[in-house]
Amino acid sequence: MKAAVIGSGIAGIAAALRLRSKGYDVTVFEAADKPGGKLAELQLRNYRFDMGPSLFTLPNLVDELFDLFPQYKSDFSYQKLDVICNYFWKDGHKLRAHKNTDSFAKSIESEFGVSHKKVLDYLAKSKANYNATAPIFMEQSLHKISTWLSAKIWKPLLSISKLNLTTTLHEVNQKSFNEQHVVQLFNRYATYNGSSPFLTPGIMQVIPHLEYNLGAFFPKKGMRSIVSSLIDLAKAQGVEIRCNERVKKIIVCGGKARGVELEKEVFAADVVVSNSDVFYTHRDLLKGSKPKEVERSSSAVIFYWGVKKKFPELDVHNIFFSKNYEEEFIELFDEKKVPTDPTIYIHVSSKVNPEDSPNYGENWFVMVNTPADQNHDWPHEVAQLRAKVLSKLKNILKVDLEGFIEVEHVNTPKDIEQRTGSYKGALYGTSSNSQFAAFLRHPNFSTDIKNLYHCGGSAHPGGGIPLCLNSAKIVASLIPDVR
Description:
Blueprint: E1 2-6, H1 10-21, E2 25-29, E3 41-44, E4 47-50, H2 60-67, E5 78-80, E6 83-88, E7 94-98, H3 101-112, H4 116-137, H5 145-149, H6 154-158, H7 169-177, H8 180-187, H9 207-213, E8 217-219, H10 224-236, E9 240-242, E10 249-253, E11 256-261, E12 266-268, E13 271-274, H11 278-285, E14 299-307, E15 317-320, H12 325-334, E16 344-347, E17 362-370, H13 378-397, E18 405-411, H14 413-420, H15 437-440, E19 452-454, H16 465-478
Parallel strand pairs: 1-2, 1-13, 2-9, 6-15, 13-19
Antiparallel strand pairs: 3-4, 5-8, 6-7, 10-11, 11-12, 14-17, 14-18, 15-16, 16-17
């Protein structure tokens, strides 16, 4: 039996591998000239950059894909980071978050006076809530009655009063710490799915568990190597990946998906999996199907800077916080404006992979969260943001960075949309600024077209590498084995 996968983001490749392991002949159709979706890379002279996601958690979800084909030998490898992130505040406070939770908690106590027991208690609660909810809300379809009849559902239901569904993440963090630097640190985890800590429910307290209790990792050949290694695996197993092949239409006959229409041919298939954004899947590929408008997650302006200087105070991941972070999120989500005082995220992969930059410099991925595209004047916004970023870094790092930037490239939300097909350039599909967000995401299957499935950041359970891999896993669980 044949399966057609539309799009080669990490969820599309993962779905292709899982279907191949179930006996399907799988063909992946990719409109771009290279597979990989957001996990792309950029070479600027002698600097290499990962263009998309920069943090690797739950690596077991990638390992599982290689385990499907035990005879295949891969050179894909990763390492656990000793320092998860460096944090910088305008008032001079700094914090180095080590992988050891006790050391991390003691650093917070030393820098901010919050007892290390409070931090450890918070992380323990994060772990407990994750273990209670992940098997249902992240690993199964919420749109199948069988999920709600499963015995697994009782644990989260019985714990519902402890899951902070009716309070916001900010309220949980404020009650837990009541120290604004620490509150701000844990508030930032809302941005991991493109949401606001002042709107997203307190259950998002589960996210720090992934970094601090389970660990943050980094592939030894960069983030791009995650998907490139999986692409190599797919090809070795007979999965055909056809680039520069834009799907024009999903063929539906008798209420069933029967294949896809391309520019020059019709490809018949027994199963169709769309890794395309669900908005464009409905608007463009299912003619006459009206896409549902939901609040999109945040996007970003990203500067890729080859910096001809080494900064020993930086690590792989670094956060430079804004001063008024509540105002930052009001502008971002309520007013749909680029924040006037943005938090800056800097990723330096050459700290792990020295070959990513010349030996005298570093490769900086500099990201500022912005709204999803609303016809903003991005050239104007980029010019203003660039000046603000350079000014803030000069004040905190005490270096005039402008003279050290050797190469530069910029991505705006509009660029992200055009390059990846993500509606409005939203990085994580829909936002989680509601306690009902998990239920409002698109199902992993079509409710009115048989044999049509959806995976990726715009479908359940959401955006980010782990959730996209889980979406592919859910899709595969819904499709029968034909071996």
